[in-house]
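As a warm-up, study this chain.
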Amino acid sequence: MTQTEWLPVPGLRLAAVEAGIKKANRKDLVVLELAEGSRVSGVFTLNRFCAAPVQVAKARLAAGTPKYLMINTGYANAGTGKKGMENCLASCKLLAEAAGCKEEEILPYSTGVIGEQFPLDAFARGLPMALAELDEHHWGRASQGIMTTDTYPKVASRRVEIDGVPVTVTGMSKGSGMIKPNMATMLGYIATDAPIAKPLLDQWVSSLADKSFNRVTVDGDTSTNDACMLISTAKAEMAEITELDETSQVLYNALEAVFVELAQALVRDGEGATKFVEITITGAASDADARIVAETIAHSPLVKTALFASDPNWGRILGAIGRAPIAELDVDKVNLWLGDVLLVERGGVADSYQEADGAAVMAQSDIVIRADLSAGHGECTVWTCDFSYDYVKINAEYRT
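Now compare it with the structure written out below.
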């Protein structure tokens, strides 16, 4: 979907400005304004060194309804101690004073370098500019403003009808490195004008994140700043949605499509990535086992470097399956495919396998790895990418 097709969500305005937080001439401060009556739910990182804004946003979200969401790039405000918390609260106060609302009605988010304090003067300078530029069409600008090592902005939209009433779903995400499934694994903001009851919104953000953002991994590192927010502005003129039924399933499906598109975009834009890889495990003793095996393959540096080299070294995949920490695995029943090519049948190399067939699949930019463990009905799909020279270079030079 192109920028001209990104659909505004009634009841939500956005702005992104160059506040000079860390670098000049780049959008680095984003504000989202929510209409009266909006509902917000979210999931956050499970990293125990979670950033000050994560702590504040979680507490405020549990206590009330926000009017503004504020995101800065450049500095993560994690590992910054008491001073970092003071700065976080002070930045919220600056926005509250400029917008004429309570400090508790602002949810803060940060992304960038860990362990360094951000400059409050940049917030004082940038926030009034952001408030003056709020517009419902600024999804593109806002998505640029939350980028760090991302190479392009990530926005997705859908429009569906519920009982004849058109409703919109639009969202944005950022993330390119330090990505591993663990509640949210990035920054993401998805909004709809459909009136979703808060208890249901809480349920949906958790289940939707689990089906999308919690299924992606770039490098196996969980960020200190992850947050995934689901917003209902409730501006669509229709009855409040209080449960998942045949009617509301249409909305849920649209939300899931946006969540998955944004999640997969993180992997496609993984730091230095050249391959997009889908890993599906079937026939596991449980869904949990399938997920463990899929993630073990996805996190393997040996598998990921083989993918970068387009080397059909399927022994690395088999080795990852064998070391996955699950209780039930009969290696003599494992079947493994690379694309449509059968590599392993009943635990050993397939009689039909030809190296040239495997190499042809590995040369593609989109690759599917599939394994059947023949142990039950559990299944799971995750998405990942390869490890390239550029991944090392980008992260070696991250602070320069």
